[in-house]
Specification:
Layout: H1 2-14, H2 52-68, H3 72-75, H4 79-91, H5 96-107, E1 115-116, E2 132-139, E3 153-160, H6 161-168, E4 173-178, E5 182-187, E6 189-193, E7 196-198, H7 220-237, H8 252-261, H9 263-275, E8 283-285, E9 294-295, E10 298-303, E11 306-312, E12 324-328, E13 331-332, H10 333-341, H11 348-359, E14 368-374, E15 380-386, E16 389-390, H12 391-402, E17 410-412, E18 417-420, H13 430-436, E19 442-446, H14 453-460, E20 468-469, E21 473-478, E22 487-490, E23 494-495, E24 506-510, H15 517-527, E25 532-534, E26 544-549, E27 558-563, E28 566-567, E29 584-585, H16 590-595, H17 599-612
Parallel strand pairs: 18-19, 19-24, 24-25, 25-29
Antiparallel strand pairs: 1-5, 2-3, 2-6, 2-21, 4-5, 6-7, 8-27, 9-16, 10-11, 12-13, 12-14, 14-15, 17-18, 20-23, 21-22, 21-28, 26-27
Amino acid sequence: MYKSILVFLLSVFFIGCGGSAGSNKQETSVESQSPPAASKPSLPEVYLVDKTQRIAAFIQLTNQVRYFHPSDGASQTKWDNFTSYGIYRTAITTSQEDFIATLRALFATMAPNLKINGQGSIEADTLNDTDTITFWSQTGYVDAKDMINSVYKRVREQRGLGYWRNLFDLDTNYQASLASSIDIELPIILAMQGSKTLPESKALIAGIQDYEIDTRFTNSYARLAAAGQLWAVLQHFYPYLDELDLNWSNELSPLIDSCIESTENCGMAMRKLLTKTGDNHNYLSSQHTALGDYTLPVSFAWLENKAVVINKTDETLNVEVGDQLIAVNGIDIDSIILEKSAYSLRAENKQKSSVVAYELLRGQQGQEVTLTLKNVNEIEYQITLFKTENALSTFVATRSMLSYENSDKHRIINDNIHYVNVSELEGSEVNAIINLIDNAKAIVLDLRTYPNWQSWRGFLAHFIDQPIHSLPMNKYQYSYPNQHGSTLIDVPQELEPATSIIDVPVIVLASRYSISQNEHALGYVQDANIPILGESTYGINGNVTRIYLLGGAENTGLEISITGMKVTQHDGSLLRGVGIVPDIAVTLTIDAIKKGEDIQLQAAIDYLELQLQP
C-alpha cells in the first residue's frame, strides 16, 4: 500500500521536474544479493545507549568508504549487512583502543590502505602520473535501483593519474576527523592492474559470514544503518547543504539516539531530519512512520492565516465550508501545527499549509476525533467524527480545489479573450489549440497545475520572438566526502521561438501548488517578461533523487525523495522554500472558496481587458 501511495503522489505532484526531459543510462555499483543461510544465528542484541559516538564514527566512515573509495572490495560489499554487523561489532568494544582496532579489522580487506588514526593494513606504492587509476565520478546521488533512469551519474572511471591531477587539482587522499576521536586518511583513487584495483581487496567475509543478518527496519542494527545512510547521502550529495543554517555533522548523534529508542521514533526522526533540509520535494514512504493513512470526512486548508473547512464528503454533517478549526481533542490547533511542522517534510513556506491539508488529522482507520470549530458568527461548537477517508485522496482533492484544476483545454471567455489550460495539454494538441486562438485579442494561460514537458514548451514557443532561458540549474561533480572540492556543473536550457508568433496581451496563472516543472515553466515565462498572476509557488525545482533504504518501501524498508539538483531564481537568490513570486498577487480567500469563484482567473481577465482598452 505504501508503495502505491508513493508512486501515485510522485506521479501527479513531485516527479518529472524541471531538470531534464529525459535520462542518462549509467553504470553504477550494485550490491550483490544472496539470501542468508537460515541455520545461522542472528546478531546478538547488545546495549547500545552509551555507544552513540562510536556508532556515529563507524557510520561516518562506512559511508565515506562506500561512496568514495573505489576498491573492488568496497564495490562488492553488501552494505546493509556490513553496516549492521559493524554496528554490532562497534557496540561490543570495551575501550577506545579496542574500538580503533575493531575499525581497522572491519575495513582491512575492502580498504587495505585506509589509515585509521595513522595506521593502515598496508602502505600502498607511490603513484606516477602515467599510472592507470580508478576513481568514483559522481554527479549527484544514484541509487542502484535507479541506475537506468537517473539523470545523475555514478561510475568508476579509469584514467591516467595525470588526468586526475589536471581535472581536480586535489589530494588523492581525503583526511578527516570523525566522532569519538577517530582520524582517517581515505584513498580516493587507486591504481589499476588489468581490471583489478591495487592493493588487492575483497568484501569482509571473516565474522560476518557467521551470522544471519536481519535487514528489516524493525531490527535495531538495520534501522541504525538505514538512518545513517540517509544522513550520509545528504551529507555527501545534497546540493543545498551549504545553504542550511545548521551543522550537519551534529545531526547524526541525535538521529542515532532516536533509532536506538524504538522503530517508531527512528522513523519520525528521519522525517525530522529531512524536514530540516527545507526541500519541498521531500517524501518518505514507509510503514514505520506512524502517521496513518486515514482522515476525517471533512477537509481543511490554510487560508487567511486560519485552518478552515473547505470540503466535506458527507453533506449531512453539521459543519460548513469556511468554519474555522480551533482545537482537536481539546488541544489548541496552533500547538498541533507547530508540533507537526517539525516532521512535515516541508520548508517553512509550506509547513502550515501542508500540515493543515495533509498531516493534521492523519491516523488509523476508525479513530474518533472531537473537533472544536467556530462558525461565521464567531460561535464555537464541537463535533465528533471518525477517520474514514483516505488521507492522500483527501489531500489530492484539496490541492485540486485550491489550484482550480479543471479539464478544459480551451474556451472562449468573451469576444476578445481566450483561456488555455496549458497544464492539461498533450504535446500533440499544441498546434490544434494554436489554431483555435488565432483570432484571440488576449489570452490567459493556466499553469496552476503540473504540465506536460512537450506541451508547455511547444505552446510557450509561440509567445516569444527570441530564445528564452530556464532558471539557473546546476549539478555537482562529487569527488570527495562531505562535498569537499565539489565542482559546479551548469545545466543550461533554452527555448527557441516557434515559426508562428502570437503577439497579443497574455498573462499566466500560477498557484500555491505550482511545483517543480510548473516552476521550471514559469521561469521561462519570467525570462519572456510575460506577467504571472496568482500566489507564490511551492518553492522547489530540479530532478528528484530517490533513496531506497533496506530494499525500499515495497520490501518493508523506506523510499525517500529529495532534490538532487540546485536551482535558483534568475538573480541567483533562493528558489528553495521561496517559490516564484507572481507579478500580480491574487491570494485565495475563504469567501471565494465558499462561493466557488475563481478569483484568479477573473483577475487575469480584468487585467487583459485593461490592456485592450484604447
